[in-house]
Each structure stands twice: as structure tokens, then as C-alpha cells.
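> tool_call: predict_assembly(chains=two)
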Amino acid sequence: SQQGEEDPQALSIQEGENATMNCSYKTSINNLQWYRQNSGRGLVHLILIRSNEREKHSGRLRVTLDTSKKSSSLLITASRAADTASYFCATDRGSTLGRLYFGRGTQLTVWP
Amino acid sequence: DADVTQTPRNRITKTGKRIMLECSQTKGHDRMYWYRQDPGLGLRLIYYSFDVKDINKGEISDGYSVSRQAQAKFSLSLESAIPNQTALYFCATSEKGRSQETQYFGPGTRLLVL
């Protein structure tokens, strides 16, 4: 079963706007990660946030984590057409064994 | 050169055929994974291996088998392919230790079973 549930399933915005994607999960976690996938290609790791962190930044990316609500958000600021991709959250379900559990993803389309 | 490679990149086969998908990595990672991706379902784990002598089933291992020939090589076999195994297959790696959580993905193999 899917651990992460991203919403929305699809998001369409104009270049320059901010894009916010959410992820909810059901179990305790050690960390939560976000990955990006360009159409038909492999996933690329974007950012990891640990359970004792509330916010993390990387360039135009901002990730928040609320463990009390079991939810995370990924914000992409000043989006570009090149940000068009699917974005997945993944958690470890509290295990340290290295397995990840992925959500179904949010398809982001950024129009020029 | 890519750190994680998969061959073939595309494959069309017929129902009942045995096929093998191969994955190689130059990252020196101990851990390797096989996932399949279906539209709208995200990624599901088929098998994973934490070292050459360690093979574990994932969520959807039925109809699949794997072989970890070396630290750098992890192959996925479909013993008798069926149409609902049509999907995009990804290999991934991760290292043991503090940064073990991040996974590095290959480019994928697109499989069509007729």
C-alpha cells in the first residue's frame, strides 16, 4: 500500500508562480524525502527532512514537516517551465533498513 | 557516464516468455532495489538486496525473481511474462550508513508484454 499520499494529483500554474504540493502519511517516520521525475525518466532526489526538523530549504525548494499532522509540503518558488515534472514523497515508515515507501505523486505543469 | 544503468531501455515481449532486466551501478553502494511504476500508482517495490548474500521480497514479488551477481549488479527476471507486467521498471541504489536513506535511480526500462 502507498505510504505517502500527495495532493493535489495534478497542478497547473504559470511561470513565476509558486507551486505547493502536499504529502500525508500514516506511520511514524525517521525522515521524509521528496523526489522529482521528468516524464518517463528515473527519479531524482530533491531533499530530505528528518523527523526532528520542521523546515528545510534548498535553492527554490522549501519543505516543511508536521509530524503531529503526519504531513509535509513542498514549495517551489518562482516556478519555471523546466520544473514541469512529477513530484513524489517517500518515507521510511520508521525503519532504518533503507526501504522507502512512495506516494502516487503530483504532476506539476508549469506553463511559460 | 551514468552511475546507475539499466538494460535494455525498452523491451517488447510476448506472454509466457522469460526475460531479464539488468542493472549495474558504479556508485559502490551496497543496497540495490527494483521497483515497478504504473500510471497513477507511484512506485512499488519488487525486490531489494542489502548485500550480495541478502535478497528480500518487496510488496509485489510474485512472478518475479532476482539475482545479485556482484555488488554492482542486480538483475530482475520475469519467469513467464504476462500482460499485467507491462510497466516501467526502475533500479535504484543506496549506501549503508547515515546517508543510506537517499536512493539513486537508473533511467528505467519500459516493458511491454503482448
